[in-house]
Amino acid sequence: MHYWRWRKHGDPSFVTYVRGGLKPPCTVTGCGRPRYGRGFCVMHYRRWRKHGDPNVVRVRCQNGGPCSVLGCDQRSRTRGFCPKHYQRWRVFGDAKRVAVRPQKPLRVCQVPRCGRFEACTRGLCTLHYQRWRKHGDPHYVRERCKTGEPCLAPGCTQKGRNRGLCAKHYWRQRKWGDVHRPRRP
Predict the structure, then answer these.
(1) CA-wise closest residue to 138 among 108, 114, 106, 117
(2) Has this prediction a pTM greater than 0.90?
(3) pLDDT by residue (tens digit) across 109-128?
(4) Of 93, 138, 89, nearest in space to 113 by CA
(5) How confident is the model at residue 21 (pLDDT cuts 50, 70, 90)?
(6) Torsion of CA 109, 112, 114, 115, to 10 degrees
(7) Is 154 helix (H, G, I), strand (E, B) or coil?
């Protein structure tokens, strides 16, 4: 305390002055800091507000050593625990407790000849469930054209690429919904 007065003010017996004169010292025995509130200096006032006692001193854990759980060789980081045991202590109140999560039972997909074992939704595996959501039918399979075959539009001789249509007719189908509509009306 006197060292800091000397570092800050150049005088170990320096006392803070306020309007109206000197601030009386803290009421805690052995503390000569100026009063802040309720007769305590700032440090003792905060301790009193937080813990109800101005003389409480928080004991800090030594971090960096081994974890305090027996059999754990990890380095401690918080409250003497490694990250794994600290998380368990924080969540369950016991660093040794292990959470057991109930798992969904694996079932077979209801689509015939599928046979996938997965955590099902509506009795379908992920693939068939997505097909059911998007198209309304879990058996839906999009038709694909074979590359190199001619365009499906009548009178077109170009190679079909997208859904059996050449680039020109595929663009018209997407834009207007009809492969025969000309570009400019």
Answers:
(1) 114
(2) no
(3) 888 888 887 766 778 888 88
(4) 138
(5) low
(6) 60
(7) coil
